[in-house]
Design goal:
470 residues, mainly beta, five-stranded antiparallel beta sheet, 1 helix
Length: 470
């Protein structure tokens, strides 16, 4: 079915802020969520919007846009990070050459604008990797840029409407790959990541965790043997004495194993995940990509098994990590997770929920869990590929943690967005959800067969489900 392109929706205005304009389109009519509710899964009674970025003013052939992370202060204050790549076809070069640029988008309730951050000149091939909201409306962004033949990390903090830049010390001769940053205040930041395996001989530090105390960055001991084998992908801060980091460990004599570390205010300690499922004769590699929580006794971690073949989900109940089964696909991986305790929808009084946005729910509250990533369909002999598309799923946390997908809901069909993925998701106190990623379309540019990469933004507006009484 041919879908119309709508250039103005509910007063949506696209603003140029020193970069290329982005025009958005929304899929219409709205997705019928009722038809997508899985048997035994919680219903979702809100409305969906799918917005795909299209470059305007003749720039469509010049920029590929990939969105990697999203964070929100409120419905009218949403931030998205990604990267845009200018593809230049050079006949003498023998193919396309890419010129990457960082991308920061802001939603003010009316339209999207591209935000320029000062003092980034000279950071070669800079790309943004993570974003979160810290302490009210402070925005915290992680990024990486090229230094010689290696990579160094930069952290950007927006505090009081002004941007501040932190360059993490370049402790190794090659790559310092810090993938995520989190904190409780501008004087209490944690960065986690990994080091390139080939760089072991040149390392001056093998610890993939650094801390900012308001004056300087310091390397912090993880307490893990062979810490250079750790690849930490996400970090979550509750307080200066309660921090979690997750990822995986490259095992010397076996497959990659999931890893989680906890900071108690003075030391890091390793917290074990359950062992591999005994149904596998040869234990496959397991990776954790993201962690989120409503309280110290309610953490959710997601990732993949066997390098993207099966999606993984774990829950921490205050004493141990437990595997939470998810629906199986030919291939599948989860990139991000967001959680929310009991909430009020806009119909029930979102203003009250927004006023409590800074408080984390106590243990025992019903948790709403959103996870995003990518899935693949069965092998297509015509294209000789596994067709992939973005994936989004939801559960309300009330079902049996060990049940086989009985409480997961796959509410939104995204098979049409081929070659796509959702990389980031966030949920507001009123239950509204934003998810971001990208998809691909085939095109012909200047006589070349090409694949354009376009931004994809999914918004869910929560509503109260109709009463079934009487």
């Amino acid at each position: 079915m041919k879908r119309p392109v709508v250039f103005f929706l509910f007063g949506l205005v696209v603003v140029c802020a020193g970069f290329a304009l982005l025009i958005t389109r929304i899929v219409n009519p709205p997705i019928d969520w009722h038809a997508q509710t899985q048997a035994g899964a919680p219903p979702l009674c809100g409305s969906w919007q799918l917005i795909s970025g299209e470059n305007a003013d003749g720039l469509q052939s010049e920029f590929d846009v990939r969105l990697d992370g999203v964070a929100a202060v409120s419905d009218n204050d949403v931030w998205v990070v990604g990267n845009k790549t200018q593809v230049v076809h050079l006949p003498d070069f023998g193919g396309p050459a890419e010129r990457p640029q960082p991308l920061l988008l802001h939603w003010n309730g009316w339209g999207w604008s591209q935000v320029s951050i000062p003092d980034l000149e000279g950071l070669k091939r800079l790309r943004f990797t993570s974003i979160e909201i810290m302490g009210g409306d402070n925005v915290l962004i992680g990024g990486q840029f090229q230094v010689g033949d290696g990579v160094q990390t930069v952290i950007l903090l927006r505090e009081g409407g002004k941007w501040h830049r932190h360059l993490l010390p370049h402790v190794n001769e090659t790559d310092d790959l810090f993938h995520a940053v989190s904190g409780t205040s501008p004087d209490d930041l944690w960065a986690v990541g990994s080091f390139a395996a080939f760089a072991a001989a040149t390392m001056t530090s093998t610890q993939p965790i650094m801390h900012w105390d308001g004056n300087q960055w310091t390397v912090v001991d993880t307490g893990v043997e062979n810490a250079e084998l750790l690849r930490l992908t996400d970090v979550l801060t509750f307080s200066p004495k309660d921090v979690w980091a997750v990822g995986f460990k490259r095992m010397v004599d076996g497959p990659h194993a999931p890893a989680s570390l906890h900071w108690n205010g003075s030391t890091w300690s390793e917290v074990s995940f359950p062992g591999p499922d005994p149904k596998y004769e040869v234990p496959p590699a397991r990776h954790i990509t993201s962690v989120a929580a409503t309280s110290k006794d309610d953490l959710w971690a997601v990732g993949d098994l066997a390098n993207g073949q099966v999606m993984l989900s774990y829950h921490w109940d205050g004493s141990a990590w437990k595997l939470v089964d998810v629906p199986e696909y030919t291939h599948g991986s989860l990139a991000d997770v967001a959680v929310l305790a009991d909430h009020q929808t806009a119909q029930e009084g979102a203003a009250g929920a927004e006023a409590e946005s800074g408080a984390r729910a106590g243990a025992g509250a019903q948790t709403h869990v959103w996870a995003v990533g990518q899935v693949a369909e069965p092998y297509d002999p015509v294209t000789e590929r596994y067709p992939t598309h973005p994936h989004l799923m939801y559960r309300d946390g009330t079902g049996n943690i060990g049940s086989t997908g009985s409480t997961w809901n796959i509410p939104l069909p995204l098979k049409e967005w081929t070659g796509g993925v959702l990389n980031g998701v966030t949920v507001l106190p009123n239950g509204n959800v934003w998810a971001v990623g990208h998809y691909t379309v085939n095109s012909v540019q200047g006589g070349y067969n090409d694949t354009d990469v376009r931004a994809l933004i999914v918004k869910y507006t929560a509503q109260t489900c109709p009463s079934t009484d009487g």
